[in-house]
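Lab meeting minutes (informal)
Scribe: AK
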Amino acid sequence: MLDSCKLKSACNLPFIYNKKINTAGTSNADVPLPDPGMYQLDITLRRGQSLAARDRGGTSDPYVKFKIGRKEVFRSKIIHKNLNPVWEEKACILVEHLREPLYIKVFDYDFGLQDDFMGSAFLDLTQLELNRPTDVTLTLKDPHYPDHDLGIILLSVVLTPKEGEHRDAELSENEVVGSYFSVKSFFWRFQTQSLRLSDAHRKSHLWRGIVSITLIEGRDLKAMDSNGLSDPYVKFRLGHQKYKSKIMPKTLNPQWREQFDFHLYEERGGIIDITAWDKDAGKRDDFIGRCQVDLSALSREQTHKLELQLEEGEGRLVLLVTLTASATVSISDLSVSSLEDQKEREEILKRYSPLRIFHNLKDVGFLQVKVIRAEGLMVADVTGKSDPFCVVELNNDRLLTHTVYKNLNPEWNKVFTFNIKDIHSVLEVTVYDEDRDRSADFLGKVAIPLLSIQNGEQKAYVLKNKQLTGPTKGVIYLEIDVIFNAVKASLRTLIPKEQKYIEEENRLSKQLLLRNFIRMKRCVMVLVNAAYYVNSCLDWDSPPRSLAAFVLFLFVVWNFELYMIPLVLLLLLTWNYFLIISGKDNRQHDTVVEDMLEDEEEEDDKDDKDSEKKGFINKIYAIQEVCISVQNILDEVASFGERIKNTFNWTVPFLSWLAIIALCVFTVILYFIPLRYIVLVWGINKFTKKLRSPYAIDNNELLDFLSRVPSDVQVVQYQELKPDPSHSPCKRKKNNLG
């Protein structure tokens, strides 16, 4: 009988044909021999040159599709109004065999219409050398008009055999033929390929270190505007990680002073691609220049000051780059749990004890997440099943479980550990269906603020939709433990939040625009109503109320001292606290925002299906960027007001207690210390800050504090839904016994 290991080795991948002589001595030109293995194709889509014009203005809005066989494996972003677009986008594709070429097709994006074809080309994968980066120039052609010149596409490709995928060379040809036509081998082949894909996904998200980058300044940048200046900003990319700096208006020597971190996924470091741009409202941003940082050339545990000359442009960028080794994330089986080991638990508790306040301020706490199982998931495959795997994210830390195939009730039993850098972070757990031919299908998601976690309790969380506004099918069972140092957490609250590398791009939505407008209107109406109330007192609409207001005005003005401002805020916080603990909660649940959020996806779907309603979107498309800016400004203004309200409403008790401590300190300081001394200390600190710390990053502690308070929309998103009683563990056991 054929050895099972050899059978799986022979059946996992497609076959190539080779002319051989079989054991009977007859020619066997069509006997399949095993392919050497699965490959990883890393592609960098560089740029296009002299592409075809498809729009009336003599330009195009090009984007590129990559296909293998008939399946699309990658689609680039759209570069508007450019015949020489620069993409610099990377794609990682798993290739089962090399017989199928890579098919590249370029299109011109037309909103509301069918996209125009701009040319295509083929890349023969069999001609690539393994493990060697290759620059490829492809000439675009139209099969119907082969004589037309449609420009070129420039790529960089690397073809790499996957580790552990080499076939057993000792298989005889008869074994190969037998295994190929075996039905059993077909299923083994499919299962092993899928497992390998899951392993590749998981390995690609385990990182080995941190790159800390401080963007200091730019010098002598190229002037792109008619006034001889620019509005520069900088984009950074390391693999799939991205960061975009703030825009510095009207300057050629911008001072950014921004700090952020990237993760290292490769031992050798990698390359950071840096591009500088000039912001242009209403049209495509101008390219200023580019440069790179080779991390493999930098020593670890040391800060490097780099002054980088911009290529294809003018000027220089000044950076601070530090590489540090780290082991802040891990994944293991349920049997290997850090907190269940008493000795290890004591070490963790000691690390975050109150006595170690000033030891490594960035290390705030420890998070352990047990992803146990899920039940009743959505069906994503035509077979009536799904291939679910789970993604656990904390800020920019991202880990994956293995995939459980053909199952709607998967059991993962995995333990994830993270170091907490900000106790106000939100743990996101997302369930996907693995699809090896295209991107994974979304099955459900939950978002859990760390401060709302009850340690050591196994809970069933109802999965939500992508917007986190309503339930979807299924529940996931998690057990979470959080250990943190409260003093470190409080200090970290007063510095800027960590920015996520990968965030959804701003989209223009009529429903979202309306929602943000209503939110801002509600905040403004609070001020308007207060003004009406004061005006009614001045107009003596109610004589008793006006008389009381007049007496209060005289008393306050006559006895006013500066320390009374934080004292009044302190009294307001205390008053709301006693209302809550006495059961007279004055916090009104805002159903308007929740209802709008729940209906948002449904309304957008209706708009897409109803062609008569698309006229509104078509009209505002010409000013899309302006509308998105207005939409975002409305969101920021509304969120600011809602965060102030939620601070006083004790939405996050930790932050409200922190506000009480701060207000007590300010009250005492203002009571005992004259104002002139306080202003003097503040001014001396501001004037000497750059002298004492030239690369210090400016920040506003109050705004950093408020950024941790959730807005009303986030309150709805983080709200825990009640699971179906039939999903409780006790109920499930009774049903099984029955």
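Next up, CB showed the second protein from the same session:
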Amino acid sequence: MTAQVDYLAVVFAATSGASGELLGSDEKELVHLVWQLVDVKNKKLGKVNELLIKPDLSNLTEEKGEEDVVEESVEEENGSGADSVSTASSLEAALNLFHLQLTNEVNSAGTGTSVCLCTDGQLHIRQVIHPEAASKNILVPDCFYSFFDLRKEFKKHFPTSDLKALNVHIMAESLSIPVDVPAMWDPSATLDPAAIMPPEIAVQQVQIMANIVLALLSEPFSHTFSNPEKVSEKFETGTCSKMEKVCDNTVIRARGLPWQSSDQDIARFFRGLNIAKGGAALCLNAQGRRNGEALVRFVSEEHRDLALQRHKHHMGNRYIEVYKATGEDFLKIAGGTSNEVAMFLSREDQIIVRMRGLPFTATHEQVLAFFSPGEGLKETCPVSGGKDGILFVRYPDGRPTGDAFVLFACEEHAQCALRKHKEILGRRYIELFKSTAAEVQQVLNRYSSAPLIPVAPAPLVSVLPTVSLLPPPGSVRDCLRLRGLPYTASIEDILTFLGEFTHDIRPHGVHMVLNQQGRPSGDCFIQMTSAERALLASQRLHKHVMSSQRGTNSRYVEVFPCSAEEMGLVLMGGSLSHTYTHTLTRSRSGTGLSPPPCLSPPSYSAYPAPPVLATEAAAALYPPIGQMLLPPRPLPPGHAYYPVSSQLYMNMNMNYSAYYPSPPGSPTTIGFFPSPSSLTSPGGLVRMPGLTYTSNGVKDIINAMQGYQYTPEDALMHAHGPVHAHDPSRTLLTQPKEWVCI
């Protein structure tokens, strides 16, 4: 619509909740709709119409026919100042009545047929009418999909005006329009921003807006109302290239989505706001499943800001959190580079269904047969394009992953296909989910780049850097190690356990250690202000009982003083491992390093993470033979990383420990495990966790190490128990963590 319209319908909406700049932010229902028709050509005003909306009683009565009764009343009974007052029993009836009365009034004028709405700002249409209609599955009349923003039209003649600060008072004052200020409701003067607007004020707002429109149409402005704001009727799917530039001010992150939600469900939640083509991307977790998050890209910053106002609005029974995100975040999820995916998604208006759990031997013919109707069944769900409508997901070497995406021509066929959820193909049941173009690209990117579980190749180096294994002598033991915590223990439980010693903890000095599954391991490290307080705390609290507020179990906790270096040694939790090289010989040169522990599994495997290895160290450890070591996910901003260094702790058991966010004062010592300089010959140390408490000490260890080159006199044991009274070579073990030098 480029030419000037014949009529403008000045509209004002009010809810049962907040008004002004907070209109629609509390999800309250629309209860009041006021409008007045403006004849643009003749510069005349029509009558003021008022529509009152009663609560929806569809769930309280079975008499559906009585719900849509529309009653006419007179101005004297209402007292709001409107020329015509109507009442509707539901939102759907109110919107249809509005459209009917507006059409009849335009047709009765006879000077033109084109009409467009005009509102004070964006909230009335985008944040009130469309979101509520979407949540109630109500079809909105066509007239609500385009409107003029009076503030933007006013700004064309007053460029210095601030859109966010504008209101009808400022615009009327700038145009020298008389306003009955004492009788007006000024949102800026209201102490309570959630105050409900009185009905008579809505009528006065509409009357002033109509006078502002007449003033803009008259000399000296002679304004032309053309190119109205548009509301997208439906979400357009599409592809996004990783080379595309996405503005940071147009992207949000939505959290708490139901796991079965699709991009269309996300578009319905943000109904009224214009999402860019293909701008809804569902996020997957490390296992390739949806994690309840999505990145949404809007057409402008204005729409992004309106989307942020829907923070904690509801999708069904769940509230959705909405936060700012960046264009880089969106491209990592939705960006694609595969030509095969681009060809698969090139067909528009196609419904995508994801198949999961396919037999590795599944073929196109078997998939087509799976969706064909069975004997005696009339339902059909033909795959769009036949074999071309099926995309198998494969690893880079061509092996199938068990996933596939299938195209269907319409929603009816897709719903028919989804009813085959968990039916058998071959010998396996197949899971079916409604999918999106962004999910297709994300899954393909995941399998075509790096594996989900980081697996490093065996190192091919024979020379180890000479770095001391054990903490340097004389280290200050100003830290505490708590062992045997209840698995449900929280930071608050630990602080309660420490009691008076809580005041001696350094800022952010509590470090909880998680196991490979991301669960508490029962260990915790605490940085204290001094070695004296750490020693005193260990003496007083050792083997005292700790209770957890989140569980009924109580356990006694062992408390030991330790140094920052020892804390770093255990936190990074690794050891040298005796591995075979690519040759057939066994020697000390075969002693290698296991991969470093990861901090935690990445939330989105498509996210590239900066390498934790220094460039030189990585080049020395892993020659460029096409094999890569996956780095850990970077911690969120505000949490310090363990510093990058050429020294690494290695874990023979691939223990992917996760840590409580590390403070700036976290341990900084990271090193290999070569043999100490005090040993008789060069070599390395092997950590042997899990030794039994009934072990015969060095004799059992020597038997276990047969076939490896070592000297028995260099066999060391690290234990906290006393030496056996009859055999000094035997030590009473008190913990299953022992060290042997080979």
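CB comment: The CA atoms of residues 255 and 293 lie 4 Å apart.
No objections, moving on.
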